[in-house]
Write a structure and sequence with these properties.
Strand content: 15-25%
Bound molecules: L-MYO-inositol-1-phosphate
Radius of gyration: 18 Å
CATH superfamily of the largest domain: Fructose-1,6-Bisphosphatase, subunit A, domain 1
Strand order of the largest sheet: 3-4-5-6-7-8-9
Number of domains: 2
CATH class of the largest domain: Alpha Beta
CATH topology of the largest domain: Fructose-1,6-Bisphosphatase, Chain A, domain 1
Order of helices and strands: HEEHEEHEEEEEEHEHEHEEH
CATH architecture of the largest domain: 2-Layer Sandwich
Number of helices: 7
Structural class: alpha+beta
Number of strands: 14
Oligomer: single chain
Length: 288
């Protein structure tokens, strides 16, 4: 039975959003200002290219410490070591550096993603974001959203701009962001799907941070995003930023987005790209 994902009536989603923003900004500042000159690979996870740096762990430790003080009854679910159960029904889902390879190489496309979700992605399949923030600490872009409250982008100290997804005229005019996994066999499947789709869209962009890819759908700097292999921490905040900007985010079949597939776009574009992806998968095969 899926968990009850209706937020409690007294849940202050605006306060949760503000806390997401505060934590994402603070952790973003840490990973830029505290980056060691000799930054290297501290360890690897699913493959030799799935890297962790000391700053991934330091960023997550900072966010977790702040949450332990501010929200001690909530659960915590982060990309790096150190999850924790809770009893409030709310879980904080954190990617301390989304786009770690970009961070390691010094490519300025990485982010800190912090979200508050109803349910617990660590223990059951059903969960939904109610507040989130994604910060690119190099560009100064700060995307925030709260359930029913819209989504905004602030760059540096500039004004907060309300976000609305773009709706291109056709699939052939659609600029599509996507990403590739750390496991070679998954990348081969992703490349085969892309080979099927590429001729039917405007072009693709591969930025290297799913959280930022999702936010770019919300701000209209890309028209759509899809990727197989994302985890809750890549997805949680960006999912809400897109839906609060008028977009659709699901697994390509109408169910909640999950590791098998995340597809995000304005409604008509979502339907067209979803159909094209399904036909591509019918040709290439389901993959793993
Ligand atoms: C990354 C995602 C990206 C995906 C990479 C990786 P990480 O997250 O944001 O979209 O293509 O394979 O999963 O590992 O940098 O947190």
């Amino acid at each position: 039975m899926s968990a009850n994902l209706t937020p409690p009536a007294d849940l202050d989603v605006r306060a949760l959003r503000d806390l997401c923003e505060q934590l994402a900004r603070e952790a973003g500042a840490l990973i830029v200002d505290g980056r060691p000159d000799d930054l290297g690979v501290a360890s690897t996870k699913s493959s030799a290219t799935d890297v962790v740096t000391v700053m991934d762990q330091r960023s997550q430790d900072l966010v977790r410490e702040r949450l332990a003080a501010a929200r001690p009854r909530d659960a915590f679910y982060g990309e790096e070591e150190g999850g924790a159960s809770g009893e409030s029904g709310l879980t904080w889902v954190v990617d301390p550096i989304d786009g770690t390879v970009n961070y390691l190489y010094g490519l300025p496309a990485y982010s800190v993603s912090v979200a508050a979700v109803i349910g617990d992605p660590a223990t059951d399949g059903a969960w939904r974001p109610v507040a989130g923030a994604v910060v690119n600490p190099v560009s100064g872009e700060c995307y925030v959203a709260a359930l029913g409250e819209g989504a905004t982008l602030q760059v540096g100290d500039g004004p907060r701009r309300t976000l609305r997804v773009a709706e291109p005229e056709s699939l052939g005019q659609t600029l599509v962001a996507t990403g590739f996994g750390y496991e070679a066999g998954r990348r081969r499947w992703q490349a085969a799907i892309l080979a099927e789709v590429l001729g039917d869209v405007r072009d693709i962009r591969r930025l290297g941070s799913a959280a930022l890819d999702l936010c770019r759908v919300a701000d209209g700097t890309v028209d759509a995003f899809y990727e197989r292999g994302l985890n809750a921490w890549d997805l949680a905040a960006g999912w809400l930023v897109v839906t609060e900007a008028g977009g659709v985010v699901d697994d390509g079949t109408g169910a909640d987005p999950r590791t098998a597939m995340v597809l995000a776009a304005a409604p008509r574009t979502h339907a067209a790209l979803g159909a094209r992806l399904r036909s591509a998968i019918a040709v290439v095969g389901e993959g793993d």
